[in-house]
UniProtKB/TrEMBL annotation:
Its main location: membrane. Keywords: Cell membrane, Membrane, Phosphate transport, Transmembrane, Transmembrane helix, Transport. PANTHER family: PHOSPHATE TRANSPORT SYSTEM PERMEASE PROTEIN PST, PHOSPHATE TRANSPORT SYSTEM PERMEASE PROTEIN PSTC. Residues 83-309 form the ABC transmembrane type-1 domain. It is found in: Cell membrane. Signal peptide: none annotated. The chain crosses the membrane at residues 27-48, 79-112, 119-144, 164-190, 247-265, 285-307. This is Phosphate transport system permease protein. The keyword Hydrolase does not apply. Belongs to the binding-protein-dependent transport system permease family. CysTW subfamily. It is a multi-pass membrane protein. The lineage of its organism: Bacteria, Bacillati, Actinomycetota, Actinomycetes, Streptosporangiales. Part of the binding-protein-dependent transport system for phosphate; probably responsible for the translocation of the substrate across the membrane.
Length: 320
């Protein structure tokens, strides 16, 4: 019946389509065009507003760590340290959150009883609804204090690795603390997308693996993970995009410092979004334009990450 209806619909001449089809088609096309217009408008605004400060800048914008944009005569500022801190914090969050998210998704889909899976899925989804300022309060009031002894152990036993070299920050407000909070924030995104992908693994693939004598873990390793790999990567990239643009939680945890430091247990580093949030209320003149220029860099980084995520998700069709 469905095939007959589809064939009949396909034979309807274009000029005689139903009004509902025409309205829906044009509405969908208009929505797609509107998204492109809004995106282009945001990019144009950032470029126009940042031109004045970039022209007056006396430093290399992409390599300098100094930020002195308040002086109209000789403003010197660069985004190098901010871009480094942004990528570093997001990378830490991605490395910490992705394995946990995959484990939670596999447990919900293939191991947990139905009621437990439903409750756990609801709790994970609820994490996405918590405001970022609440995560920031939790991080600065509770988490950093609990992490200081752990940081001491990392320095003692893993201090020979440059990332964990001391001295450990006395406040605990380090890039690793910010990365842990960001990992909790992006966990629901990666978990939800991984869970949906694992649900879509063809039953024939799973049953074939089990029929050949595979255990449940071997079935997951041979049938589920290869099928869901593009979706998991896409979810991780979307979570990375969220971590790159996070503002309040990072601003509340990190001690502002415009340095390029790879040491995760020491205070230092700052992200673009947090720097804009902290500096904008007092910025004037070229200072505002300079912050918008930094926002343009963040916009470009986030756009590239999300475009990469969409490309990876689209490749999932090859495994369907």
């Amino acid at each position: 019946m469905t095939t007959t209806d589809s064939s009949a619909t396909a034979r309807i001449p274009k000029g005689k389509r139903r009004m509902g089809d025409v309205v829906f088609t044009n509405s969908a096309r208009g929505a797609g065009v509107l998204i492109l217009v809004i995106l282009a408008g945001v990019a144009a605004f950032l470029i126009i507003q940042s031109v004045d400060s970039l022209r007056a800048n006396t430093a290399n914008f992409f390599t300098t760590t100094e930020w002195n944009a308040s002086t109209r005569e000789t403003p010197a500022f660069g985004v190098a340290a901010l871009a480094f801190g942004t990528v570093l914090a997001a990378t830490i969050a991605l490395v910490l959150a992705t394995p946990v998210a995959i484990g939670i998704a596999l447990f919900i889909v293939y191991y947990a009883p139905r009621r437990v899976a439903s409750l756990l899925g609801y709790i994970v989804d609820l994490l996405a609804a918590i405001p970022s300022v609440v995560y920031g309060l939790w991080g600065v009031v509770y988490l950093v204090g609990q992490l200081r002894p752990f940081y001491g152990l990392l320095e003692t036993y893993l201090g020979w690795i440059p990332l964990f070299a001391g001295p450990v920050s006395a406040t605990g407000r380090t890039m690793l603390s910010a990365g842990i909070v960001l990992a909790v924030m992006i966990l629901p995104i990666i978990t939800a997308m991984s869970r949906d992908v694992f649900h879509q693994v063809p039953q024939a693939h799973r049953e074939a693996a089990l029929a050949l004598g595979a255990t449940r873990w071997e079935m997951i390793r041979m049938a589920v993970l290869p099928f869901g790999r593009p979706g998991v990567i896409g979810g991780a990239m979307l979570g990375l995009g969220r971590a790159l643009g996070e503002t309040m939680a990072v601003a509340m945890i990190l001690s502002p410092a415009l340095v390029i430091s790879p040491f995760l247990l020491q205070s230092g580093n700052q992200t673009i979004a947090a720097h804009i949030a902290l500096q904008y209320p007092e910025a004037t003149g070229y200072g505002v334009s300079a912050l918008i220029a930094a926002g343009l860099v963040l916009f470009a980084i986030t756009l590239a990450v999300n475009m990469g995520a969409r490309f990876i998700v689209a490749r999932r069709k090859e495994f369907s």
